[in-house]
Amino acid sequence: MKALVLFVCLSAGCLAQRPQQCRSPPLLTGSLSVSTQSEKLMAYAKYNYDALGRRIRLQEFGQYKNQTFYFDVLLLYNLGVMYSINYENNTCCKKPLNVDFHPLEIPRDAGLLGQVVLGGSSGPGQGVLVNSWAGTLKMKNATAAKYISTVTEFGCIPVSTLFHTDRSGWMITSFFNNVIGLVDPQQLIPPPFCKGARLVEEDGEEPETFFSLFQK
């Protein structure tokens, strides 16, 4: 009987050690970089992420097709709108946001690729334990997108995501300087001069998505 109890305890311990799919903290602040396989795009952004209210703020600069750009957008998935904000002339462009909000998480059907230590494992504080997962996402146009996501074992903090579509090829997003919580909650509220902005809908224009924002 003791041997059976010991076997059950050891089995439970092994199961507990296997990485599990997870969801990142609902409130995050940090920075990220985005680049594409074609080398047409390289960008850096500060982000504010609120999964509870389904809101994201991106303040980004970079290069696309050898053209330098900067933009500041507030994505309000809860209202189905996005604001392109310009503080230089205190103006806003309000557009429909006709896509679903996808929280930062590892989907339940994702497959584990492996667990590794980023950095070193020879001493305390030299590295961080991360898990890499792979899977596919169904897009609204009936196509499938491949992804590989890496998150920390403890806390499920995003580290990087590789995302592939037939149209755009591979795109990599790397997260850094992440902080749990909202450092400045006001970043997720439209500034006062956006109050009178009218909704602009352009015929034939495709709906905005998170990744399309990096290809302006």
Walk me through what this model shows.
By secondary structure, the protein is mostly beta strands. 7% of the residues lie in helices and 47% in strands. It has one helix at 2-17, and strands spanning 27-36, 41-50, 55-64, 67-76, 81-86, 91-96, 111-119, 127-138, 144-152, 158-165, 169-180. It has an eleven-stranded antiparallel beta sheet with strand order 6-5-4-3-2-1-11-10-9-8-7, with no helix packed on it. It is globular, with a radius of gyration of 20 Å. The model is unreliable at 1-15 (pLDDT under 50).
Summed up:
The chain has 216 residues and is mainly beta. 7% of the residues lie in helices and 47% in strands.
Distance between the first and last residues' Cα: 67 Å
Main beta sheet, described? 11 strands, antiparallel
Detail the poorly predicted runs: 1-15
Strand segment count? 11
Q: Into which percentage range does the β-strand content fall? A: over 45%
Task: Output the structural class.
Answer: mainly beta
* Estimated helix fraction: under 10%
Write the layout of secondary structure elements.
Elements: H1 2-17, E1 27-36, E2 41-50, E3 55-64, E4 67-76, E5 81-86, E6 91-96, E7 111-119, E8 127-138, E9 144-152, E10 158-165, E11 169-180
Antiparallel strand pairs: 1-2, 1-11, 2-3, 3-4, 4-5, 5-6, 7-8, 8-9, 9-10, 10-11
Keywords summarizing the entry:
11-stranded antiparallel sheet; 216 residues; mainly beta; 11 strands; 47% strand
